[in-house]
Amino acid sequence: MKILVPIKRVVDYNVKVRPKADESDVDLNNVKMAINPFCEIAVEEAVRLKEAGSADEIIAITVGESVAQEQLRTALALGADKAILIETDQEPQPLGISKALKSIVERENPDLIIMGKQAIDGDNNQTGQMLAALLGYPQATFASELKVSDGKAEVIREVDGGLQTISVKLPAIVTSDLRLNEPRYASLPNIMKAKQKPLETISSDELGIDLNPRISTIKVSPPPEREAGIIVENIDQLVDKLKNEAKVIS
Amino acid sequence: MTALVITEHDNSELKGSTLNTVSAAQKLDDEIHVLVAGFNCNSVAESASKIEGVSKILYVDSSEYENFLAENISLLIKNISNDYSSILAPATTNGKNYMPRVAALLDVAQISDISAVESNDTFQRPIYAGNCIATVKSSDEVKVITVRTTAFDPVSSESGSAEILKLEEVNDAGISQFIKDELAESDRPELTAADVIISGGRGMQNGENFNLLEGIADKLGAAIGASRAAVDSGFVPNDYQVGQTGKIVAPNLYIAVGISGAIQHLAGMKDSKVIVAINKDEDAPIFQVADYGLVADLFTALPEMESKI
């Protein structure tokens, strides 16, 4: 079984991102970049399937600038076998990314595509579902458990009321939620080995894909600030404030 | 121009998130139609017809929609989408699941999780876990939108009188199959609909200690939530999680107990009207967003609070 794992380069999750002073965009000057945490979980899941003998090849792929090779190398160090960069200078949006990924899916014919449920920059939560739609594949989003057998994937999904189990025919798209697994750390020998693994670069022009943004950002502003509160001394004072000042309990 | 709102329901009851979504749709378009798709869900169509400001209910009742599988629902929405300038669903796990699929089938972008409508093509939405608010403009002819329900006041569920139009639309993609739901059963209000929420974090130490929250929740009619740390530690199930990747809530009163206040948690609750934090670490970031902070050991504070409210 061949698994394709689309990943994204994003701001490290520990960074508190702020708007630029002129509010034209977010300020990403000199911030640490990393592989999106949900994508890391997706890579880990693919590697576990390979270690369990269910998969024999893992391809990591991303759509972005040349520097996104760093994150592909991370995926290779975690256990992917080869990587593909679809290079573009535009900041691609989910629909365009899905179209670019679709053309590679049609070339590589993976049996399973595992990817993060959302990237922590735009918080869009769209690309997996869009790719599934464009390919006519089933989707199992927000997965917390994945079992593959007999040409099907059985997936436990995290839904609002609890958990839902569905079965999808392969080829299918699975998007990872936080509890699918705990990703390993790449070991130093594996980081060294990853440098030798194949990384193919394709320009988005070659694919002839329309990556033009459909949504433009007009402004990025800070969220409304909450006014500083007070520290109460004890429960009596807290209950009194809630009853008589905030009037939220009676 | 007409908006189509997709209802959230469980085949017997219409969910409140639909009312917030209609409210957002009213800021976009003059006329609003509502889709009720499910199986044996006549009662939902009846309830939907009473939603304020809605002129027509499109009612589709067929077994392949019973479990809202994205493959089938998205085909249905695409087929009936012709006359609409916008299609909106609440940003629940259902809406997040099928709406991007609808958008891709229509070859349009989706605007996710909008928190305000500026005009019929310009919206605000939180990005980077709510650390920034982006104002975005869509150039697509049809706007496919998911709505952050806490950002819009619900419309009335009583005052409308929409016509119900039953459609025969069969769309079984045949590639996915529902097996089972394991949904938490509780007499408490749902997290996303509760007026009061009391949430526990890693400081609760184990699942059993969540009992300390229950007495207070009973007295206040509150829902119980949790931080990601508490869910990941196995104290409580995933559906308790409030945060960037869990549920987004904005109750009148949010009580955070033993929660440090990681930005991913704050992203899910900082629009609450009044925030109370109880934590023994006075440097915990949760105190920066709390209206009332109490630096105390939760194991003594919670029983005392329960006895005094």
Structure description:
The complex is a heterodimer of chains A (250) and B (309). Chain A starts with a strand and ends in a 5-residue tail after the last helix. Chain A is of the alpha/beta class and 250 residues long. Helices cover 28% and strands 31% of the residues of chain A. Chain A has a single domain, classed as Rossmann fold. Chain A contains seven helices and 13 strands. In chain B, helix 3 packs across helix 4 and helix 5 runs parallel beside helix 8. Chain B is of the alpha/beta class. In chain B, helix 1 links the parallel strand 1 and strand 2. Chain B has eight helices and 16 strands. The N and C termini of chain B lie far apart (50 Å). Strand 12 of chain A pairs antiparallel with strand 8 of chain B, so a sheet runs across the interface.
Secondary structure topology:
The complex is a heterodimer of chains A (250) and B (309).
Chain A: E1 2-6, E2 9-11, E3 33-35, H1 37-51, E4 57-64, H2 69-78, E5 82-87, H3 94-108, E6 112-116, H4 127-135, E7 139-149, E8 152-159, E9 162-169, E10 172-176, H5 188-194, E11 199-203, H6 204-207, E12 215-221, E13 230-232, H7 235-245
Helix pairs in contact in A: 2-5, 3-4
Chain B: E1 2-6, H1 17-26, E2 31-38, H2 42-48, E3 56-61, H3 70-79, E4 86-90, H4 93-105, E5 110-114, E6 116-119, E7 122-127, E8 132-138, E9 143-147, E10 163-167, E11 176-183, E12 196-200, H5 211-220, E13 223-226, H6 228-232, E14 253-257, H7 263-269, E15 274-279, E16 292-295, H8 298-308
Helix pairs in contact in B: 3-4, 5-8
